[in-house]
TrEMBL record:
InterPro entries, sorted: DUF302, TT1751-like_sf, UCP021774
Residues annotated as domain DUF302: 36-98
Name the UniProt record assigns to this protein: DUF302 domain-containing protein
Pfam hit, one: DUF302
Listed SUPFAM superfamilies: TT1751-like (SSF103247)
Amino acid sequence: MDFHYTVVTDKTIDEAISSIEHNLKENKFGVLWQLNLTETLQKKGVSSYTTPYRILEVCNPVEAGRVLSHNSLVGYFLPCKITIYEEKGKTKIGLPKPTAMIGLLNDTELESIAQEIEKILIGVLEKSK
């Protein structure tokens, strides 16, 4: 099983992010924070990395509360990440699969919730490409 799910789009990074934000909102998720990794690395003196790369930290507060109430260790995996980056002239949108992360805790109830979240987030990626 791959730990990630990634799609390719013809959209620019900014267009993809706009689409992702819209589609997340339709599913009761929101962007908590956005990191422009390329810009941050360059500000830290790493001028050699120029590939556009953005990371969105996304969350559904109700689901986050539900899984944290069940097991505090889930906080190690929150919030969910969605990455948007360029590779070989194409924009890619990806995420680490919640099932891969939660699977580390060996808890069937949490795995079931992670499957639901993963299905929603994969739908967001597919609709956003």
